[in-house]
Write a structure and sequence with these properties.
This protein is α/β, with parallel strands linked by helices and 204 residues long. Helix content is 30%, strand content 30%.
């Protein structure tokens, strides 16, 4: 089973608010984005948006230019249905982030909660960082959340790679400057705890 088939099966067979990474609202992501990019005309891309409520909440805060990317058509269609007519305000990409051709220097903010840590092969991370570097404007920000040093080593049946802020900075390279980092102890719907690392970087 390839990655797309795996995630289509996950979203087809589980309820959105029961998956381990689910939060009713991504409060930390929203706060970091509002802090570093208060301009409501900023172009934002949510990588691995799935069935997250991030789109609902960022539009409710007045941001006007949002793109949501996910490889799962099931997840994207469910989110479009939930949003109703509001979905027409969003640009949608059904694609693997390691293979997508995004517009060059299009985005002011790149948001990713819980995609990057699934990229366990160096070639996958290289492709991701290439897409990020090409698509993000100079001076733009990335808000990136991965499993932290004490996070799980597997999720949704897949191995993951855990990070601290220094390791994540090293992965992104010298083209990005770390602005801030923090740890979240995420309580899963099943009642367990997952450690997430949130980092905000600015493209040099």
């Amino acid at each position: 089973m390839d990655s797309k088939e795996h995630w289509e099966a996950i979203y087809r067979t589980t309820v959105a608010d029961t998956v381990s990474w689910y939060r009713p609202h991504l409060e930390i992501s929203l706060r970091l984005i509002c802090d570093v990019t208060p301009d409501l005309s900023a172009a934002i891309i949510d990588v691995g948006g799935g069935q997250s409520t991030f789109a609902d909440d960022i539009l409710a805060r007045g941001y006007q230019d949002l793109t949501v990317l996910d490889m799962s058509a099931v997840a994207l269609n469910a989110t479009k249905k939930r949003l109703g007519s509001i979905a027409e305000q969003i640009t949608w990409f059904e694609s693997d982030i390691t293979a997508v051709d995004l517009p060059e220097h299009r985005y002011d903010v790149w948001h990713d909660r819980a995609v990057f840590h699934f990229l366990t092969e160096p070639s996958q991370r290289y492709a991701y960082i290439y897409a990020l570097t090409r698509a993000l404007k100079p001076g733009g920000c990335i808000v990136l959340a991965t499993f932290g040093p004490r996070g799980p080593d597997r999720c949704s049946g897949l191995e993951v790679k855990r990070y601290d802020a220094e390791q994540l900075s090293s992965e992104l390279g010298t083209g990005f400057k770390l602005v801030t980092s923090l740890i979240e102890d995420h309580q899963t719907p099943a009642g367990s705890c997952q450690q997430f690392l949130y980092c905000c970087f600015r493209k040099r």
